[in-house]
Amino acid sequence: MAITLGPNQYGKAEVRLVTVQREGTVHHLKDLTVSTSLRGDLAATHLTGDNADVVATDTQKNTVYAFAKEAPVGEIEDFALRLGRHFVGSFEHITGARILIDEHGWNRISGHDHAFSQAGSEKRTTAVTVQGDQAWVVSGLDDLVVLKSTGSEFHGFPRDEYTTLAETNDRILATAVTARWRYQGDGIDWATSHAEVRRIMLETFADKHSLSLQQTLYAMGEAVLKEREEVAEVRLSLPNKHHFLVDLSPFGLKNDNEVFYAADRPYGLIEGVVLRDDAEDAGLAWHTLAAF
Ligand SMILES: O=c1[nH]c(=O)c2[nH]c(=O)[nH]c2[nH]1
Question: Complex ipTM, two decimals?
Answer without folding.
Answer: 0.99
